[in-house]
Amino acid sequence: MTDNPRDWQPPFDDDDEFWRRFEDSLNRAQGNRGDDSPSSNPPSEPSRTPPEPGDVFVPPEPPPISAPPDAIARAAWLAVIIGPALAMIGYVFAISSFLGGIGIGATIVGFVILIARRDRHIPPGEDHGDGAVV
């Protein structure tokens, strides 16, 4: 063995010989024979019992998604969705930094409007919910 890395030689002259020895070492580590014949003790598969027909959970049908009820909410959603697209178009294609600024501003203003108005759409007498309760 030499200390100079430039004088290093691979231990095998042939890649096939290396891979054959590598596969043999893996087979020995797993307890298999080196040939391709199936082993006498095949690994046991975990037994799975199929679920009973009555045990399958079917979620209830979700309510339909409705459009925002007023023009301000629609404009705010449009600003939140279209604003990043305007910013990317303005900056990526170097059209105008003004267009990018308008896109970022529209996104921020639309987001603030949606957050400020979110409590108005909860029916009276209902709480805000506990999130996902299992």
Identify the notable features of this structure and list them briefly.
mainly alpha, 134 residues
Give structural notes.
This protein is mostly helical and 134 residues long. The chain has a domain at 71-121. The protein has 3 helices and no strands. It has helices spanning 15-30, 71-92, 97-116. Helix 2 packs antiparallel against helix 3. The longest helix is centred in the middle third of the chain and has 22 residues, at 71-92. The model has no long low-confidence stretch (mean pLDDT 77).
Which secondary structure elements does this structure contain, and how are they paired or packed?
Blueprint: H1 15-30, H2 71-92, H3 97-116
Helix pairs in contact: 2-3
Distance between the termini: 64 Å
Shape: flat
**What integer value in Å does the Rg equal?**
33 Å
> What is the overall pLDDT average?
77
Task: Kindly name the structural category.
Answer: mainly alpha
The DSSP helix count reads 3
The share of residues in extended strands comes to under 5%
Note the run of SSEs as H and E: HHH
- Unreliably modeled segments: none
Largest sheet data: none
Please count the beta strands (DSSP E, at least 2 residues each).
0
Helix content: 40-55%
